[in-house]
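[job 4471] stage=fold_predict status=RUNNING
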Amino acid sequence: MLTKEANKRLTQVGPGTPGGNLLRRYWYPVATSSQLADEAVLAVKLLGENLALYRSPNGDLGLMAERCPHRGASMVYGIPEDGGLRCPYHGWKFSEEGQCLEQPAEPAESTFKHRVRIPAYPVQEMGGLIWAYLGPAPAPLLPRWDIFVREDWDREIGLTYQPCNWVQMMENSMDPVHLEFLHTAYMNYVMGREGRPPVSKPRHHLNIAFDVFEYGISKKRFLDGDTGDEDHWKVGHPIVFPNILAIGDDTCPRFEIRVPLDDESTMHYSYYCIPRAPGEPAREEIPVYEIPYLKEDGKLVNDNVLGQDMLSWMTQGVISDRTTERLGWSDKGVILFRSIMFEQMEKVARGEDPLGIVRDSEKNQMLVVPREHKAFYTPTGDMVIEHQTNDPLDVVRSKAIFGHAPKG
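[job 4471] inference complete, writing structure tokens
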């Protein structure tokens, strides 16, 4: 268990908090490219800050505080122009760096504008997502993971707003053994309640292990019947520190990106890839859609893996009370994640770069995440019952049960 003070330290994301200072050393998606195509300016929230994201007529991106420093009007309703964003109230214009450029109602000879700035942050576009960095200069490089930049993959993006703290999601990712019950026994129970056949094969974890590497942590599992040559023991599922789970295999790689909006809410990006057939043209745009966590009757989704994970995150409460928990051997990954979080907070306090920061541009041409070649929760995975059928849609249904099927 954690003390009340340690739980706050772990879960707070706002400016000036130890956790917020750490998290501000990384880049986060704040919107999809298509969302900004639909609106000239978007209201976004990241790490407890309310912001205005915009694209100027010449295509440049900008991100600044939502509240104008003049009289507090919202910049979300401002006018994007080449070189910056203009407030709708009195026309004050701010550059992409936050410097006030124009104050139409002030005397022409006034130097007042030179003394006014608005918080503004670097933004970049990659893989159909718009990324922001809220930390101190110099900003690290935006990591060019293969899932975002390979030209032979098609992509889809699923969005789910989660009314809970981001750490609950990452602790779930550091907990290999929950699939033994949540995604197996409970999954088959739900299937039975719905009059459907079981889909998961029960297997027991004999061992779990965790390796810290340059960009994060790999979680590994050894199950009854394994030989030790399986990818889930030799490679595992990487967690790209601090907030990304890498799952899937070479045929359908996937990132789950958990973006802390504030202490009590998170945006979950499900980022799917599928190899494009040779000679097939790339999609003109990346499909973006909502993945709901509620059923039509208002109950939580509980009949697929992602829904079951979300159920476990949200039913812990908005911010899990870790002062009352009782941790055992199977929770050593959760304990490790917390210890690494606290260690990285201390590194940042000393002025050092935390785990996973990228500053080598040559290395950043394309970063390859360690990935299983035969992953769980695909029709060929080791935890899925192979039902004999001639129905060609069964592959799609299997993927839908165990997460989401790319729509193709």
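[job 4471] summary: The radius of gyration is 23 Å.
[job 4471] exit 0
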